Amino acid sequence: MRTTGPLAALAATALVFTLAGCSGATDGELTYEDSPLNEYLSAAYGGDLSPEEQQKQFEERQLKTEELMAECMAEEGFEYTPNTQNGGMVFSDDEVEWEPEKKDWVAKYGYGIVNNPYNEVMQEGGSEEYVDPNSEYVESLSESEQTAYYETAYGVPPEEEELAEDGSYEYNWEDAGCQGWAQHELEGEDPWQSDEFADLRDKMNAVFTEAQESPELKDLNAEWAACMDDAGEPGFTAQLDAQQSISDEQSALFDAAYGDGTTEVDVESPDFVDPSESPEMKELGEREIELALVDLECKEKTSYMKQALEIQFAIEEKFIAENKADLEAFKAAAEQNS
Question: First CA to last CA across the chain, in angstroms?
């Protein structure tokens, strides 16, 4: 799967600082949006925009990127029709409720992994069939021409030795074909990826590690784990481990169905079972809800999210005080680039 580029990487990194921030409100007080670092990170990925503004910005950027990509492909001798359906999907708060701090939500979705609320929205809007406007042209090309087309459009896929253990790789717009060029032309130099802020980037990544390894959080996790043990869910040492266990089991089911990528799987075979529709996945979904409800109860008993965010935010405040000038420079560069 092709990475979507530096902006997406920054947004993902920003979410790391929330300490499971998508858990929403915490005891009616702190939320991940109260993060002291949010002021600086939001400047780079549009976090200060409303869902509607983000949707509009996304659509405008997508159209401009596709138009630039068409220009690039034409210069390389290929036809390319801007694909306005190409890209990620953005949901507003009106479409998807993400409230894992509420018991009724957890009783329906668990952690939102197997029982993902986004799936409902996609199914409801699934009547519109995706049509690639370039498919007919690509099919008219020879096999070698098709290979050249895709390499020109998206770059040469990385070699196996270039991949990390999880299958990811370091994004470089210069290696990402016309798409990479178009995104770079539109977004300019991403300050998060620039050498100027390399030291700041490393320090910010260390903030999360520092919080995870802090004595205060370890004590809090021990208190939460004791509650889980008493409730019949032993074996976890940190709160994030409970949710991760479901994610790992889901990945294992997909890996078992599709293999490790070294052999071809015939998904059209009558013997093939879509893992998302398998009895094992259904069972895992039920297990997810069961575990998440116990987890939620223990988080409430220990005021886990409130205390975890307090620990995180104290570390962030210290980090900001020590790196104020660099953070202000990064914020100014991000705002200029947006």
Answer: 26
Q: What digits encode the pLDDT tens for the residues 87-136?
A: 544 444 455 677 888 999 999 999 999 998 877 666 655 445 667 899 99
What are φ and ψ of residue 26, in 5° steps? Answer: -130, 105
The string over 116-148, giving b where at least 16 C-beta atoms fall within 10 Å of a residue's C-beta and e elsewhere, is ebeeeeeeeeeeeeeeeebeeebeeeeeeeeee
| φ and ψ of 38, to 5 deg | -60, -35
| Sign of the torsion angle spanned by Cα atoms 301, 307, 309, 312 | negative
CA distance 67 to 243: 41
Question: pLDDT for 135-181, tens place per residue?
Answer: 999 999 999 999 999 999 999 988 878 777 766 777 888 999 999 99
Q: Measured between alpha carbons, how far is residue 239 from residues 119, 158, 205, 220, 236 in Å?
A: 25, 36, 20, 9, 7
Asked if 150 contacts 123 with a C-beta cutoff of 8 angstroms, the reply is no
Which tokens belong to 11?
A: 């947004």
As a whole number of angstroms, the distance between CA 145 and CA 80 comes to 14
Phi, psi torsion values for 110, nearest 5 degrees: 65, -120
Q: Which residue has the higher pLDDT, 321 or 118?
A: 321
The whole-angstrom distance between residue 101's C-alpha and the CA centroid of its chain comes to: 20
